[in-house]
Amino acid sequence: MSSFNAHDIARAAKNAFQEAQLIPSSERVEALHQIREALEASKAEILLANEDDLKAAEYEVRAGNMSATLLKRLDLNRGDKWDSMLQGILDVAALPDPTGNVSYASELDEDLELYRVACPIGVLLVIFEARPEVVVNIASLAIKSGNAAILKGGKESNRTTTMLAKAISAGLSKTSIPELYIQAIQTRAEVSSLLQLDQYIDLVIPRGSNSLVKNIQNNTRIPVMGHADGLCSVFIDEHADVTKAIRVVLDSKIDYPAACNASENLILHEAVVQTVWPPVAKALLDANVKLLCDPPSLNAIKHLLPTPSNYESLVSPSEPSAYDTEHLDLILSVIVLPSVGSAIQFINSHSSHHTDSIITESEAVASIFCRGVDSAGTFVNASTRFADGFRYGFGTEVGISTGRIHARGPVGLDGLVTYKYMMRSKAPSGHVVGEFGTGKKQYKHKHLSATAVPFLQ
Amino acid sequence: MSSFNAHDIARAAKNAFQEAQLIPSSERVEALHQIREALEASKAEILLANEDDLKAAEYEVRAGNMSATLLKRLDLNRGDKWDSMLQGILDVAALPDPTGNVSYASELDEDLELYRVACPIGVLLVIFEARPEVVVNIASLAIKSGNAAILKGGKESNRTTTMLAKAISAGLSKTSIPELYIQAIQTRAEVSSLLQLDQYIDLVIPRGSNSLVKNIQNNTRIPVMGHADGLCSVFIDEHADVTKAIRVVLDSKIDYPAACNASENLILHEAVVQTVWPPVAKALLDANVKLLCDPPSLNAIKHLLPTPSNYESLVSPSEPSAYDTEHLDLILSVIVLPSVGSAIQFINSHSSHHTDSIITESEAVASIFCRGVDSAGTFVNASTRFADGFRYGFGTEVGISTGRIHARGPVGLDGLVTYKYMMRSKAPSGHVVGEFGTGKKQYKHKHLSATAVPFLQ
Questions:
Q1: What was the pLDDT predicted at B446?
Q2: Residue spans of alpha helices (H) in A186-309
Q3: Which end of chain B, C or N, has fewer beta carbons within 10 A?
Q4: Residues of chain A with CATH 3.40.309.10
Q5: Is the separation of the CB atoms in A419 and A118 below 8 Å?
Q6: Interface test with B, best of A386, A394, A411 (most B CBs within 10 A)
Q7: Which chain B residues touch A348 with a CB distance below 8 Å?
Q8: Could you report how far apart the first and last alpha carbons of chain A are, in Å?
Q9: Where does the Aldehyde dehydrogenase domain lie (chains A, B) (predicted)?
Q10: Shortest Cα distance, chain A CAs vs residue B123, angstroms
C-alpha cells in the first residue's frame, strides 16, 4: 500500500472522531446495538470468509508454517465464540459511560469555574493477533469510549476482518456516527506508514510479542500503550503460611501457563527452604511443573527426587538466564534469597513490572513488599493470575499495560479516555487575568463538588 | 561524554528511586527543608558561579550570539529571584502528598480486596532552558512526588546548575533519601545517550522549542510529556457580548504575548464582522497590536484606518501561513467564518490543542464549542491566559502538556504520579483464580470506599 492511502485513512479517522464529538453518548450505545444486528445479519457471509481464512491456514499448518493453536484461534464458528462475541458488544454497551465525569472542579473566582472532564483520546491504532473476534471487541470499546479506531489484525484473519469491518460500518451507517469511525487495514506496510502520522493518530495499542511492541516504540512519535512481557514472580516470605504458599504458587503457575499473568519465577526466603519449600515443590512436581533450581533450592528437595521416578526428570539446575525467561509453559525458575529486601531488588531487576505476589502472614512485610516492588500489581497471598480486567471488575480490558504512563496494569474503558479542562465565566464582563495579582483580585481556588460540567448539553 | 557515563547516571537514578520507595513521604518534605537550608548555606558560592555564567553570557551578547532576554533569565541575583526560589521549595513542601491516594477500591470476593493507589512514576529526565531557578523548582516537584530526576538545563547556566545540584545533594545527604536521587547533567551528548536507556528512565519532560520536543520524540522509546506549540485562538460567536469580547481578546493577546497561552488567532463569526469586530479591532490597535486580516475582517475596519495614522501601519492582509504561526508578539491573525461548526473545524486544524476560548452569551453554543474543540482547555468568556498551573490551583506546574496521554494542559504534581494495583487476600488459605468460574465462586466486585490502602504502613 502506498503512504497516500495511509494518510487518507488516518485523516478520515481524525475527521470522524472530531465530527462525533458532538454526538451524545446515548448514540454510541445505539451504535453498538446496530452493529450487533448488522453482524447477525451478515453472519453467513462472515463465516464464509472465515472458512476461507481457515482453509488457507490449514494449508499453512500442514506445510509446518503455522501452529495448530493459531488455527484454533482463527475459527469464529468454534463453540460459542460467535454468540459470546455478540454478547460482548451488549456487555460493553451496558458499561458506565467513561466520558463526561468531572475529576477536578474549582471556583477560581466568583463566577469563574474550572472543570477537568473525562473525554475520548482521539484516534486509536490497534494492532493485534489473528483472532477475528478481537476486531469486534476493540471496535466496541472504541465506540463506547468515543474514540475512532484503525484496526489491524493478524494477516491470517484478513478475510474475516474485512467482512467484520464491513458489518461494523453497516451498523454505524444506521446512526449519526460516521461510517469511517472504525476502519480495518490489512498490511504491515500500512501500519508503518500510519506510525508516522502523529498529526492524526493519538495512541497506538499493540497487542502481541515483545519484539512487535519494541519495534513499534522505535518507529513512532505517537504514544504507545502495551505490554512487552509478562514475567511475574511469587515470593515466599519467612512468615509464609504453607497452605497459602502451595495454593497460590500452584494457581499462579498452572491455572493457564501461557497467560502473561502466570508466574515464571519463584523466590524463596532462605528461612523457608527446609520448611515451606519442600511441600510446595512436591505440589508443583505432582502437577508436572518443571523446576529450574539454584543450588540451595535444589538441595532442599533432593530427598523428594528418588520416588516417584518422574520427579527426577522434572528438576534441573537453573542457568542465570532462567530468571529472565518468560516460560509460558509448565516451567518455574526457583531462587533462594536472604530477605524481603533482596527479593524486592531481584523482582525489580528481573520481573517485567507486571504483577508480583508475596506469601506472608506479616502485615509489615506485606507493606514493604507492596511499596517496594515496582510493578503494576503487587499482591498479598493471592495468585498473580488475578491481574486481569474482568477479574478487577472492569467488565472487559483493552490489554495490560506494563508502561507507567497514562494507564498501568489491566486497562479497561478508563484507559481509553483522557481529560480536558473547561472553564466558564459567568461574570457580567467575562474574566481576564489582568484583574488578578498583587493589590488586585486574588484567586479563590475553592473546591466545587461537581460530577458533571453544568453547562454541557 | 561516553554512553558509559550516561548508563551509570541512569542506573544510579533508578536505584535511588527504588531505594526511596520505602521512605515515608514525611521524609521527602524534610528533604525539601534541608535542601532549602543547604542552598541558603551555599548562597555565596552559587552566586559566584552564577556571576561566571553571566560574564560568559555577556560576552556572547556583545558578540551577538545571545539575546539580552536570555541573559536576564540567567541572573539568579536579580530582584527577588533568589528568595522566591527558596520560598518555592517551601510552597511545594506544603502541597498535599500526591502519592498514596486510592482512586479505585473493590471487594472482589469475601476477604479479597483490590486497591488502585497513586505512586511515583520512577526516573524523570527533565530538559529545560537556561533558567537556573528551574533546577530547584523541578527538583522540589520530583522529590515531593517521590520521583528521582536527572536534570539538564541550558548550557549557558551550567556553572550555576552544577553548584545548585551540589547543594541539593548536600541537603539530601542529611536525610535517608539517596544523594543521587537528583542529578544534573551538562551536555546534549549525555541527553542523547540517556534517551536510549528506557530500562532506567520512565518519562522525559522537555521544556523548550517545538523542534527540541519533536527531536526528542523521534529519538526515544521513553514516553515524552511536553508541549510542542502554544497556538491559542479566541472565537467571537454571533451571540457575543461586545464588552466581554473586547476584554477577553485584549487580555488573551497583550497580557503576556510571549507566553504559550497567549492567543495568536482571532476567529470572527460572520454575523459580528460589522458589529462587535470594529470596537474589538480598535481596542487592539490602541494597544499597538498588529492585525493580519483576511479580506472580510480587513474591509470591516477600513473606516478606522485613516485616523490616527499609526493604525494603517498596524493592519495588513494575512497570508495563509499566518493562521499556523505562533507569533509570540503583539501580532494577531484574524479570520471570518460562517458558523461555530466551521470555527471548531478551523481551530482543530490550526490550533495546537492547547487552549481556545469562545465569546458567547448562548449556553447551547458554548456547549458545542467546549465539546467540539479538541484542546486541553476550552474556555467560555475567559482569557486563554488562565491556562496555567498556578491559576488552576495546582500551586505550581511542571509544564503544559499538549499531548493527550497521561496528563493534559497545565501539569501539577498529579501529573508526576501514576498508580499501581495492590491486592490482599485475608482468607484463611489465600486466594486463587481456580476457585472462580461457572459452577464455582462468582466475583462480587463490590465498591469499597477507601481513600488509602489499609494494610500499607
A1: 96
A2: 188-194, 210-218, 242-254, 277-286, 295-300
A3: C
A4: 232-392
A5: yes
A6: A386
A7: 18
A8: 42
A9: 6-284
A10: 11
Range(s) within chain A of domains with CATH label 3.40.605.10: 3-218
Angle between helices A25-41 and A158-173 (to 10 degrees): 130
Q: Is the pTM of this model over 0.90?
A: yes
Under a CB-based contact definition with an 8 Å cutoff, are residues A354 and A260 in contact?
A: yes
CA distance A303 to A307: 9
Peptide bond between residue A454 and the one before it cis (omega within 30 degrees of 0): no
Nearest Cα residue in chain B from A435 = B251
Nearest residue to B16 via CA among B192, B224, B180, B237:
B180
Q: What angle do CA B252, B257, B263 make, to 5 degrees?
A: 40
- Give me the architecture of the A232-392 domain, per CATH: 3-Layer(aba) Sandwich (3.40)
> Is B433 in contact with A255 (Cβ distance < 8 A)?
yes
Query: Does B247 sit within 8 Å of A429, measured CB to CB?
Result: yes
Adjacent-strand bridge partners of B205? B126
Q: Where in chain B is the domain with CATH 3.40.309.10?
A: 232-394
Segment A371-383, tens digit of pLDDT: 999 999 999 999 9
User: Regarding the domain delimited by A3-218, which CATH topology (the fold level of the hierarchy) does it fall under?
Assistant: Aldehyde Dehydrogenase; Chain A, domain 1 (3.40.605)
Model confidence over B101-149: pLDDT tens digits?
999 999 999 999 999 999 999 999 999 988 899 999 999 999 999 999 9
Q: Are B393 and A106 in contact (CB under 8 A)?
A: yes
* Complex prediction ipTM: 0.93
> Which residues are CB-contacts of A396 (< 8 A; sequence separation ≥ 6)?
A88, A91, A92, A95, A137, A141, A389, A390, A412, A413
Instruction: Calculate the CA A97 to chain-centre distance.
Output: 19
Q: Sort out which chain B residues have CB atoms less than 8 A from A409's CB and list them.
A: 420-421
